[in-house]
Fold each of these.
Amino acid sequence: MSQINQLFEFMLSQSPNVSDLNFSVGKAPQVEINGQLKEVPIRGMGKLSAYQTEQIALALIRDDRHLLQKLFRQGSVDLSYSIPGKTRFRVNIFSQRGTYSIVLRVIPNGVPTVEELGLPPQINQIAEERNGIVLVTGPTGNGKSTTLAAIINRINEDKAYHIVTIEDPLEYLHRHKKSTINQRELGADVPSFSLALRAALRQAPKVILVGEMRDLETTEIALEAAETGHLVLSTLHTIDASKTVDRIIGIFPKNEEQQIRTRFSQTFKWIVCQRLVPRADGKGRLAVCEIMRSTPRTREYIQKGESEKEGRSLLDAIQDGSLDGMQSFDMELERLWKEGMITKEIALSYATNAPNLSLRMSGISATTAEGKRFLEEQVKKSEPKAEEKKKPEPPQKAMVNDVPADFSAADIKDLME
């Protein structure tokens, strides 16, 4: 194990901003720095062979029979790995084209605070909630687990609660402070999120963290826990608040939609959608958050469903709710651009509505005649030209036994050569 630890440490030494280590057959070992992969030259180790990645995978699994069985049966496995006293990793090993690839996500030492992560200060208010559902969403690798860890850490420092976390795998290790924290890991402590969550209801927690709402059963139990007075925190892989609501509703059968809309509108407290965007100075990335919280307006829009005709839009409610601590992605991107933290190109590439954001950056309102003309031009540019819409189909050659009729023996010979 000392050799593999030395390899990982050498790769981490490439930059203080290394977020992932990547081992794939046919490529040299790689590190991800600020969202970009970079090869690490290692003496005696060029492009990795299938044998090398398999040996690294087995070293990480450490003869754990449960993990080996899961890898063989499901084709991938999650686990945690640590270099004692130095670094912890969240590891995913997966098969591809008959070989194994490995990605190790670096888990920083200690549990970060909301302030250290540069997150909006209103996220600290989540720690004051007594019940309900809080969802932190975003694409993979955009810091959802870290944000949840910061929230749990705040509760741990301020409240004398019993907190149960259910994770796959364990990432941040929380110490008992004012609260008592029990952390359960899928595979090692419990076979599934749903079983662990149902058991947690009998363990007298005030706060339950569920690593991910993966299926209907887990989501149903989470709603039940929130309705019975627990604070439930979890994640989803959705890009904004509106899509998050759609995902929760869509998990359930269509005939239960109105019932789930009513239940979710009454139990949700916050939805925090997070993306990491490159800084203008090239020194890392910034967390940009869309934040929606429970208000009479957002509850009504979730319960009745969004409707452009009737003027119900969760995005409009978020943009009008700044006094309640709400903010949209585009509002934050515009602010960061004005402060010189990100470039205009980056802001527009991550925007929910790039044309509208471009207008605001130009000082033009979307409701003016000039703004409307600009938006119309953007729509026209995105539409295919008339001549491109209906291109004539090329004439089909007569076929004989799947070979064109005019295809000569010489042509076949050329192809064989």
Amino acid sequence: MKEFVISEAKVETAILVGVITQTQDERKTNEYLDELAFLAETAGAEVVKRFTQRLPTAHSVTYVGKGKLEEIKQYLLDEAEAEREVGMVIFDDELSAKQLRNIEAELQVKILDRTSLILDIFAMRAQTANAKTQVELAQYKYMLPRLQRLWTHLERQGGGSGSGKGGSVGLRGPGETQLEMDRRIILNRMSLLKERLAEIDKQKATQRKNRGRMIRVALVGYTNVGKSTIMNMLAKSEVFAENKLFATLDTTVRKVIIDNLPFLLSDTVGFIRKLPTDLVESFKSTLDEVREADLLVHVVDISHPGFEEQIEVVNKTLADIGGSGKPMMLIFNKIDAYTCIEKAPDDLTPATKENLTLDELMKTWMAKMEDSCLFISAREKIHLEEFKSVVYQKVKDLHVQKYPYNDFLYQTYDVEE
């Protein structure tokens, strides 16, 4: 009798490539590559190797130098010979059409950059019509300037003017026709998607108007800092939370009651370093919740070694979408996962950020921000009552300012835990 062997689907393998430049030192480059590896894992790929090169700036033709590209190519060939074929090479920055074309021609494998990887994760995570439309629009914006490389198989075909002098090399005849046809199709599709988003935006604006006289609070922050966990804890809801990047893509709004005070709490899409401009542009309607919020709760992962830079990234993105200048609280989450490196007694070098204990770190931030800064663990429910109390007081103050003649809608009562 013939036996059937069911083999498991192989996980696609990838190698990462980054550059150490004058503006991005080795430590920062390694941090970015750690994040890129997490992005690749979220997308379903396994990272098997990393390559870095020290350059003044990324090479305009091949991103890395010719020698480094040869080294990557040799590694791919060696792995293929050992029957460990690598499926893709992922670059840490957005690649131009020229860079993509040259690297693909040299390496002969699938090439992705940070932007296309993030877009792929967004496409995988999108659940609602709004999110799917926004992701599709961002993908077309990314694809449009890179169309030529999709039609390189037509570059040897003739056409153009009869004298042979007209047109660009590689774009005459059928190549040009197909490129222009694709460009027109994509532009038409983008127009349609923009109209659809404008319609969705109108509906959402109407929904926001109908929410009554309540203060709006928005959770903002870097991706994977625990915003959805805090949302679930405060709103007692079931928002999807997972230890992966961009687990939340659609903005979720819930009514929350603390003591006698109702308010609206929204959980927004997380930000990330080097977030594609097209993605920010496409998601502006989703981020209206941030722009129209009365209070921003900026959630930070205190256990991440680069949390200070993450704070800067979020603040810059908020400024880009017109959400800065609002009342803000800084919530340091995941204190249960915080670790520090204790200095040896005979070590006389100045203490660095890694040597600070949690208590020392708390004092430095709280001295700067007073009661607008709290340290909690949403997962372990540490300092949650203090967090609720501060949120209540800030929302109450805003409520009295915004709606001075509107009494609170609920009498004080105890909510069952």
